[in-house]
Amino acid sequence: MPCYSKLLNFYKTLYKNGLMPAQPKVGYADASPYGNGEVAMMACGSWAIGQLKNDFPKMVGKTMVAEFPSVNGDPKRTTATLGGWTLTVDGKSKQKQAAADFIHYLLAGDPKIMAGFFKASGYSKFTVRTSVDAALANDKNASSDPFMKVIASKIVPFGRHEPGYPWDISLAMGTAIESAMKGNASASDALKSANSAINDVIKKQALAGTGNGN
């Protein structure tokens, strides 16, 4: 699709013109460079707010959040995925049911459990459960948090659920972006390699028609 070629070439322009770090010192989830004053702004997930509150409290009063600009400037276009780390049960576990029961207790039990988690995270996480939303709505600290207000009203309503397909598919696309970005392949060739790798994953893992690889 032409839009993917535009995306890869956009990354290439950013990389070649020095508009993005050639070698990031930290992972994408770390807000330390901003907290330490090494950069003036950052693009990050809402979890960074919790890190600032815990590790760099002096920066909180100097910080504001805003939605990421969409490709055409429309504020209602999706710029964020909703979801995150997933708790799973090892198929070889000797205590499968006990592990499943714990996950159910933690994530689908009393909403106050997860409301407590959001409080501990500095209200920098967002729930997909309406019952937990209701519990947080009764928490004055949560409802008055300026960061949460912006994210909850301007970003979350237009977000999309995190993809459910295997990591191999994301890796193939990421490899294509990096390959084109660094000039190791043209955008067209990089996307052809990604398409071949993705179709191979779909075939080997029998994903076609399951809703996880289409």
What do you see in this structure?
The chain contains 11 helices and 2 strands. Strands 1-2 form a two-stranded parallel ribbon. It has 2 domains: 67 residues, no CATH class; 132 residues, no CATH class. With 214 residues, it is mainly alpha-helical. It is globular. Helix content is 51%, strand content 2%.
SSE topology sketch:
Blueprint: H1 2-16, H2 32-35, H3 47-55, H4 57-60, E1 81-82, H5 96-108, H6 111-120, H7 130-137, H8 140-144, H9 146-154, E2 160-161, H10 167-181, H11 187-204
Parallel strand pairs: 1-2
Helix pairs in contact: 1-10, 6-7, 10-11
Provide the descriptors you would attach to this structure in a database record.
single chain, mainly alpha, 2 domains, 11 helices, 51% helix, globular
Structural Rg:
20 Å
If you average the pLDDT, what whole number results? 86
Estimate the strand proportion. under 5%
| Count of discrete domains | 2
- Return residue spans where pLDDT drops below 50 for at least 5 consecutive residues: none
| Structural class category | mainly alpha
The end-to-end span amounts to 15 Å
The residue fraction in helices comes out at 40-55%
Secondary-structure element order, N to C: HHHHEHHHHHEHH
Strand order of the largest sheet: 1-2
Summarize the structure.
With 214 residues, the chain is an all-alpha fold. The chain has eleven helices and two strands; from the N terminus they run H-H-H-H-E-H-H-H-H-H-E-H-H.
